[in-house]
Structures are given as structure tokens and as C-alpha cells.
Amino acid sequence: MKTFPENFLWGGAVSANQCEGAYNEDGKGLSVQDVLPHGLRGERTEGPTADNLKLEAIDFYHNYKEDIRLFAEMGFKVFRTSIAWSRIFPEGDEETPNEKGLEFYDRLFDECLKYGIEPLVTISHYETPLGLAEKYDGWRSRKLIGFFERYCRTVFTRYKDKVKYWLTFNEINSLLHAPFMSGGIKTPAEQLTEQDLYQAMHHELVASAMAVKLGHELMPSAKIGCMILGITVYPLTPDPDDMIATMEKDRETLLFADIHARGTYPKYLLNYFEDHKIEICMEPEDGEILKNTVDFISFSYYSSVCATTHTELGEPTGGNLSRGYKNPYLKATAWGWQIDPKGLRYTLNRLYDRYQLPLFIVENGIGAEDQLVTLENGEKTVLDDYRIDYLRQHLIQVREAIRDGVEIMGYTSWGCIDLVSASTAEMRKRYGYIYVDRGDDGTGSLRRYRKKSFWWYRDIIESNGVNL
């Protein structure tokens, strides 16, 4: 039976803004996250406020050596993290980078490599410098392409001998749903038109392709991928109209992968622009830049939704940024995200059939309210069998997709150490194999404790998935 390949990259994933803390240390500037204390759907504040857990987060900035050692104990082959753009360019538009910020990531990547862990680095993970939002309205301005190129050139040059795997923008399709968090667009979302959003999207896509071009020039052996928010959609009924509705909702996600993988705008998107009177302002060189296509496609996968034209039959549901209707055959998490392991196999096959490019699952996991307990031997842990079951069922479907013939590079489960939730800005919504003692009220020792899933995942990695 085919199982996971020998070079499969097992690991976990975090983002800088959800774990690092140290929001104003060593020359770091503010990012959009520093004024979003209540998560995805909360209002921004004028500046950092005491109720923003991300300002300290789990203090990975000062505890990264201990945390990387714990990842190594689990046997990680890869660790996905992001660079906080405003650590390198505090306002975003400086000509000279912040050396202390660069030095931190030198230390972090060196610590990973010491244990044989490959860094997988997201260049922009919902961390647009606040200065770029305030001065330029974020990615609505074409000027950000130049600032992003300078940032990419800086980190590629600095870390080219330490980082082999790069992602350009985290969940790039989220720009259409969360313009401030995803794209640093200061203009209130309700005032933005589709024209505004798709123009900003174009700027990001050009910047992403430019990063691929630059990365291949500076790091010939590196692999550079895109990252999309994976939204798997089923028709709620067999009505052909529901199939068309599903196709159209799918394309809201796939258009980003289409452009990254094929290097051109798909005809269905150009038709949509024509029908909705959207005129993208493109420079003459943009078409050639977009032809710099990615080496692989990565995506997040948490849940699935249904699409329907029979709205009276459906009950609305959704995940982080996905919206649709409940599937009556699926259960849901405490936060209402429907659990669909087989949807991951379906998604992997569908993406591979469409692009014939290697795939990388860079986010997958279950947010839950964990309870720290003390065992008879005095050890503190979390008996998170629910997390083990969730991950096992999804990894079984990854194995099935490999048997189907899908080329999969690796799997980094989300929030491998507890961190601040992106969607709700809570600590109580935990994903990790490692419990961090911090509460929603900001109290706690920040001590780390291995959960039951820690030992389970160690066994899965050690056996290369045989013990699933």
C-alpha cells in the first residue's frame, strides 16, 4: 500500500503576529494586527490597547529556543512561520532595513537548522506594516509592489542559505473578505467597491509573481509557492442550479491559484469583470511579470460548506472566512466549523488534477477549549483525544490522496503550539500540541506543557505515518 514518501515534510505552522509578541521591541514597527484586538470581525483601534493579546501573545520572541526544542522532540522536519514585515521595515517604506529584526530571524532559522528542521517562511501573513495602511491605504496603492519587492530582496538575500521553502502571501484570496487584516486597506470595508478590491488583488498578484521571479534569481534552488484559503464547496442539492452555484463559489478561490499556477487571468474572471463593469488598471509589464509561476501550491484546510440556490433549505454556516450552508452529513466544532476529513482528499485530488503541481497542506487543525489536568505522577497535560481523532482522520485522507497519485510535499498542522486565534483573538481557542499557560484575560505563567497529542504526533512522524 502506498503511504507517505520518505521525504515527506512533517511539521507544524504558526504566524509571527499570533505567537511572537514583543510588538515594540528591537525597532519593530506596528502592524495591522497591533490595532485589531478582537480578531477578524472586530473593529480596529487607533493604537495598541491592553486587551490585545497579540501584543505579548505567547512570547515566542523570547522563548523560541525552548519551543523549537519541543518541535524537534516531536521530530518536526519542517516549521512554518512568517517574518513580521514591520520587524524588517518598521513603517514599510524605509530604504534601509532594521538590522535587529533581521538578526532575530537569523537566530530563529539557525535554531531550526540546528535540529534539522527546514524553515517554511511566509513573507506576508496578515502583517502589513500599519504605516503602509495609514500612508497608502495598503494594497490599494500600486506603490506597495515596490515596497514589497524591497522587503523580499532583503530577506531573500539575507536568508538564502537558510530557507529553502517560501510562501508569498498567506491566504491571498482573503483580501476580498478581510481587506484591512489581509491587505492593510484602511478604507472601511463597507466603502470599498469590487473595483477597489480587485485592483488591490491585482497589485498583490503582481507582487507575488515578482517575488517568485526575484526568488528564483537570488535562490536558484529554493521552492516558492502561493498559499490560498482552501474552501471546499459541495452542492446542497442535485439541482443543476446548485452545481452552477458551486462552480461559481469555487472560482472565488480557484482564480487565485489559476493566476499563480498558469500566469494569466482566466477567461471566466475577465468575463466577470466585463459583466460587473470592473476595469483593472494594469501596467504594460504586468502580463509578463504574472508569467513567473509558482513551484507549488499550498493551502489551508479546516472545513467545507455547501452552496445552493434553495436558500430556504439551507442553514448558514462557515469557517474562518468561508461562508455557505451547513452540510447535514457533517458534525461541527465548538466554533461551528464543519469537520470534513474526506473533503481534504477531494480537495487534494481536485487541485492536483487542475494544476499538476506539488501540493503542500500548510494549515489544518481543530480549535478547542483544552483543560490542563494533573496526572498521578504530577505531570500536567491535556488529554486531547478529540484533537488526535481530528488529525488522524484528516491524515488518513492525505494518505488516501497519495495513493490516488497526488504529489504532496508535506503537512504542517496549524498552531502546533497554542497561540492567539486569528479569527477571534482568543487564547481559549487552542490548536497546539503544546499547551501555553495564558488566558483570555492575559494572565498566566506562559509555561509550556506537552499535550497527549504531542506524543501521538511524535509517533506519527517517527513512523512516517505508518502508525495512523
TrEMBL record:
Active site: residue positions: E363 (nucleophile)
Domain of life: Bacteria
The keyword Hydrolase is annotated on this UniProt entry: yes
Protein name (database record): 6-phospho-beta-glucosidase
Any GO BP: carbohydrate catabolic process
A GO MF term: beta-glucosidase activity
Keywords: Glycosidase, Hydrolase
Source organism of the structure: Hungatella effluvii
Family affiliation: Belongs to the glycosyl hydrolase 1 family.
Lineage: Bacteria, Bacillati, Bacillota, Clostridia, Lachnospirales
GO cellular component: cytosol
UniProt xrefs under InterPro entries: GH, GH_1_N_CS, Glyco_hydro_1, Glyco_hydro_1_AS
